[in-house]
Amino acid sequence: MADAASQTYDVVIIGGGPGGYNAAIRAGQLGLKAALVEKRATLGGTCLNVGCMPSKALLHASELYEAANVEFAGIGIEVKPKLNLTQMHKAKDDSVEALTKGIEFLMKKNKVDVVKGFGRIAGAGKVEVEAEGGAKTTLATKNIIIATGSEPTPLPGVAFEDGKVIDSTGALFLPKVPKHLIVIGAGVIGLELGSVWRRLGAQVTVVEFLDKVGAGMDGEVATAFQRGLTKQGMTFRMGTKVTGAQTSKDGVELTLEPAKGGAAETLKGDVVLVAIGRRPYTQGLGLETVGVTPDARGFIANDHFKTSAPGVWVIGDVTHGPMLAHKAEEDAVAVIELIAGKPGHVDYDLVPSVIYTGPEVAWVGKTEEALKAAGVNYKKGKFPFAANSRAKINHETDGFVKVLADAATDKVLGVHIYGPQAGELIGEACMTMAFGGSSEDIARTCHPHPTRSEAFRQAAMGVEGWTMQA
Ligand code: FAD
Ligand code: NAD
Questions:
Q1: Whose alpha carbon is nearest atom 8 of ligand 1?
Q2: Which atom of ligand 2 is least distant from the CA of 353?
Q3: pLDDT tens-digit map of 138-180
Q4: N or C: which end of the chain has fewer CB within 10 A?
Q5: What distance in Å separates the CA atoms of residue 460 and residue 366, rounded to the nearest whole number?
Q6: pLDDT by residue (tens digit) across 200-251?
Q7: Protein residue closest via CA to atom 3 of ligand 2
Q8: Looking at the predicted structure, is the pLDDT value of residue 2 above 90?
Q9: Separation between Cα atoms, residue 449 and residue 143, nearest integer Å
């Protein structure tokens, strides 16, 4: 790396997560001289280090463990699995290490200077980086991209305490399976990590403020999803708020109240996972030096990724939109293309969501509730996995695909899947919608047999009432 302090960069990116590292790669591809500043020892941000990747490693391993425990015998494979949690964590940590090293390689390949240390904006065109040990370097740059991500939102009255009251990172490293894990928040993190520990043997109780699981998913899917998780052994306390926590050597006692008000009660567990959302991270960033003020919820507002300060841009979790790695990646490509004078653009209506439970939930576009609220006249096609031959053969018959299309034009407005490999299937819906496709486009496209993707086609056929296999 050339001496970082002795040159003027085209762009300095603060934060080495999916927003930051993808921006750095695209900058390299377009011939912009870029530096990536990261305070962690490894690149990859929340997603690679303590988010998407380690959680998916545990979801995969625990799914196999549960399958070996309860499903294998039924298909004629007799085994007695024994949990080796230390090895499960090691396999996860090894995968994470390989992935974060992969990002270091991509930075070299794209001629990006990686500067390790805490980045602080020090006025227009200047980023000061403080390395571990205190040494400071100032980088001069034409553009600054803020990609500092987010952190877990704490719950007032329920203070984090190592090993007892934990956030998602704590739940990725538990050294033993809790007897009773209480999860606060039936959103993505609560249901994914709750599933991991239930499969590995914990009793899991989920306490949720709202009456619906899944933080914004389609209502019909949410009902089926909660029913499925309950059948697997998770317990739900819906419409309930947590007002306090008392820790002792035996665990944690939570005080609960109905969300609408009413008598308090207590619930005891040995570990409590607080998963009530994430909040933007801007601590110590020096925003005041360029006159940028976060909004009331801490997000940095943007107009086509521009902040209120000239030459200062913002992407990913720290600005508005879904807090997802692939959204941060879309932002990253668009912001660099705009900086390079190209027409960068993101269609936030087409950012898919996936919950990697078993079965998975995936969706893109509008929910039925949103269409109704907007007064849109829509048609609906629905197909159950119980009627899909591949799902039947694999004993994965829970769930359905739902396709929502405009009643007048047939344009697909939303696709909602609860079922096996929903996360893989949703890509086809994203592509259809990105091309402005209709339900008939899907219905008249030949799909391979026997695959779960046929359920998607059959649901699309259902929009015009000609589903053939159910
Ligand atoms: P981050 O990934 O948070 O990266 C920001 C980086 O900036 C961090 O590395 C941080 O150390 C660094 N930083 C912050 N301030 C400074 C500073 N001043 N100087 C230097 N460095 C700084 N999303 C999905 O799409 N799919 C999933 O399956 C998924 N699973 C998840 C599971 C869990 C348990 C969690 C917690 C999150 C998950 N997410 C998932 C969300 C996903 O991780 C985030 O949406 C994504 O990481 C956001 O990317 P980002 O680049 O905006 O921020
Ligand atoms: P979330 O927004 O998905 O869910 C939080 C849940 O907590 C909601 O259901 C909310 O109603 C509930 N809640 C809020 N306050 C509460 C309270 N006081 N008591 C009880 N319940 C309360 O948030 P999360 O699960 O923490 O995830 C954070 C972010 O990380 C999400 O934006 C998500 O997109 C991202 N993430 C994504 C994935 C994925 O893509 N598979 C996985 C994990 C995390």
A1: 45
A2: 40
A3: 999 999 999 999 999 999 999 999 999 999 999 999 999 999 9
A4: N
A5: 16
A6: 999 999 999 999 999 799 999 999 999 999 999 999 999 999 999 999 998 9
A7: 187
A8: no
A9: 51
User: Is 449 labeled as catalytic in the residue annotation?
Assistant: yes
Distance of CA 209 to CAs 28, 163, 214, 243, 369, Å?
A: 45, 24, 12, 11, 19
- Ligand 1 centroid to Cα of residue 320, in Å, is 14
Confidence at residue 238, expressed as pLDDT on a 0 to 100 scale: 98
**Superfamily covering domain 359-463:** FAD/NAD-linked reductase, C-terminal dimerisation domain (3.30.390.30)
Q: Could you give the CA distance from residue 185 to residue 275 in angstroms, rounded to a whole number?
A: 5
Concatenating the DSSP letter of every residue in 130-151 gives E-TTS-EEEEEEEEEEE---EE
Cα(49) to centroid(ligand 1), Å: 8
pLDDT for 196 equals: 98
What mean pLDDT comes out for the span 60-68?
98
Closest ligand to C-alpha of residue 326 is: 1
For ligand 2, whether the C-beta of 209 sits within 6 Å is yes
- Model pTM above 0.85: yes
**Rounded Cα gap, residues 240 and 400, in angstroms:** 29
Over the stretch 6-19, which tens digit does the pLDDT of each residue have? 889 999 999 999 99
Query: CA angle, 196 as apex, 193 and 202 as ends, to 5°?
Result: 105
Task: Report which bound ligand comes closest to the CA of 356.
Answer: 2
Q: Which of 168, 172, 189, 361 to mutate to test the pocket of ligand 2 (most atoms within 8 A of CB)?
A: 189
Q: Domain limits of the chain?
A: 4-67+72-151+280-348, 165-276, 359-463
